[in-house]
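Protein 1 of 2
SEQ + STRUCT:
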Amino acid sequence: MNMKDKVTNPSTNILFLFNKHSFRLKFINLFMNKIDLKIKKLATNAVMPKYAKPGDAGLDLTAVSKIADQFGNLSYGTGLAVEIPEGYVGLLFPRSSNSKKDLILSNCVGVIDSGYRGELIVKYKKVKVDNIFFSDNPSYYDIGERVAQLVIMEIPNVTIIETDELSDSERGDGGFGSTGQ
């Protein structure tokens, strides 16, 4: 293929390949699955999030503050605000190291909408049953530790259609264990 058969559209970063014989247009996105994420440090000790290993899904977030609320929850501030592009969502998940802590993320998954510009805060509940902790020496995250991971995902804009009927499916309305144990 010579250079006149290859054209790049700089506004979309799409490479167009022209096949002279079939008049087909093929395109390849040169930056597939890459987006820019603007991050603002709100605290001087804030740590920029990063992937621990190549191919990781989540960016590790580090605690720069820790506050206990009146309900016993621990809120870890990251000192960071993000600008998630429109059409995407940020999801806050516990890191796998959370299995070594006596904490559970209070809302299971934190949802960061693209319009939110405040500090990323990770709120954990202390693990206890009947107001009794499972451990005599409970373990929590300290300031300076990685406390969560931020996953950025594309999300569709859903159009709601009210209807009286839904299509049939193999599962139907079976839920809560209806597919077996």
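Protein 2 of 2
SEQ + STRUCT:
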Amino acid sequence: MEEQKPLEEKEQKEEPNRAGGAIGGLILGLVLGYSIFASSLGPHMNHVRELAKRAMCAVNLNGIGKCMVMYQADHEDVLPPNLHTLVLEGEAGLKMFACPSARTERSPTRDLADFREHCDYIFTLCGQSAADLPSDLLCGYELPLNHNQEYLNRLHYDMYSEGARDMNRFRAEIQKVNDFLAEKRGGGQ
């Protein structure tokens, strides 16, 4: 006759299978939970990345401003004729002229045509004597397309850089620069 094993032995053989299934279920639950958590953070992380790019863009503008001050000190208190001059005279590195949020795929090069095509910043006071410039005058700004036209970093002549979403204020600052330059040329009202 066949000997019957005690009931306790049968249960012990089945338990490891149940424990393995429970661990597998736990791991699957954790992976699924992590996936849901990570997907919910996606939009937030994109926003955080964009904030970091805006900050780096402001740092670039501030660096350009400092390079303009160094140029001005070496050239009888006159600002450079263009941003490219800062590169040619060794005052600034090329990476400084590329906004991290810009759609350009690379930094500009020393070649003038390439520099103009790939530079992400605009300089408003080309070749001006610094003697009579108002400190709050807009000196430079980034291309409005850099941050999807939602945000714009600006640099004032007193080297104060700021960013804002208010495009109307930006237009008013550009108009102030245009009025100032027209008055200096004798074309003011």
